Amino acid sequence: MTTRKSLDFSLAALMIVAPGLASASSLYHPTGGEVGYTTHPDHVQSTKSRGEVMQSVEAARKDGTLAVLSRGGALPIKATGPAKTRDQVQQEYLGMSAAEKQRLQEMYGAGG
C-alpha cells in the first residue's frame, strides 16, 4: 500500500509540474492577474538562419503581404482549386443519396 501511495504522489507532482516545464521554452508564460501571460522572446529557439528570415521578408515585401500584415490586416485565403458553378453544386446535390441528404438536413437545419 505504501508503494501505491508514493506512486500516486509522484504522478500528482508530475501533473502539477509538467505544464511549467512545457512552457519554459515558449514565447508566452502564464501569470496571475488581469493580462494572464508575459512575453519572453529570448526563450524561443529559432530553426531558421538570418538569411532565411531575410529572404522570407523580401518575398513578403514583393508580393504585398508584408504591407497588409504591418497594418494589422488579415491575409486573404488562397483558393485551393477552382470554384464550382451553381449548376455543378445543384447537380452534386441531386446526385446524393437520401441518407446523405438527410445527414445534411440534420447538420445544417431545414434552411429558410
TrEMBL record:
The UniProt keywords, alphabetically, are:
Signal
Residues in the signal sequence: 1-24
Name the record gives this protein: DUF4148 domain-containing protein
What is the taxonomic lineage of the source species?
A: Bacteria, Pseudomonadati, Pseudomonadota, Betaproteobacteria, Burkholderiales
